[in-house]
């Protein structure tokens, strides 16, 4: 498959991307907007409590990064922000909750509009595995601890 044909598959398509503030998703968003500016819409799921916070996170943590300098300075110039506003729609939500904490009307709209879904979401809590392990050990060894305490006392 030719690289150009991959970009063509995104023409006039709406894409939902989860984990959009992560490294790989930022790269994907920038590449799609640069290589296929005729994408219909990019819906970016952003962990945020409301639409304003999602928009702010999108502007500072995704579009505001140096990765988008080529789009900002060379391809779109002064019209960059209007291009982003037209092509990118931040969605406040959280993948760890049912329906991403999106309302029923939003879920219905996305189900009718989205052609492609890219799941780039991941947990970045590096202590999570450690905490689960410690809790499992504490629960598992508690009966032995009680037994040993009785034995030595």
TrEMBL record:
Biological processes per GO annotation: long-chain fatty-acyl-CoA metabolic process; suberin biosynthetic process
UniProt KW keywords: Lipid biosynthesis, Lipid metabolism, NADP, Oxidoreductase
SUPFAM superfamilies for this protein: NAD(P)-binding Rossmann-fold domains
Gene3D superfamilies registered for this protein in UniProt: NAD(P)-binding Rossmann-like Domain
The protein's enzyme class: oxidoreductase
UniProt EC number: 1.2.1.84
The keyword Lipid metabolism is annotated on this UniProt entry: yes
Listed GO MF terms: alcohol-forming long-chain fatty acyl-CoA reductase activity; alcohol-forming very long-chain fatty acyl-CoA reductase activity
Transmembrane segments: none
Domain of life, per lineage: Eukaryota
InterPro entries (UniProt xref): FAR, FAR_NAD-bd, NAD(P)-bd_dom_sf
Domain Thioester reductase (TE) residues, every copy: 17-133
Enzymatic reactions: a long-chain fatty acyl-CoA + 2 NADPH + 2 H(+) = a long-chain primary fatty alcohol + 2 NADP(+) + CoA
Protein task: Catalyzes the reduction of fatty acyl-CoA to fatty alcohols.
Family: Belongs to the fatty acyl-CoA reductase family.
This protein's name: Fatty acyl-CoA reductase
Organism of derivation: Oryza meridionalis
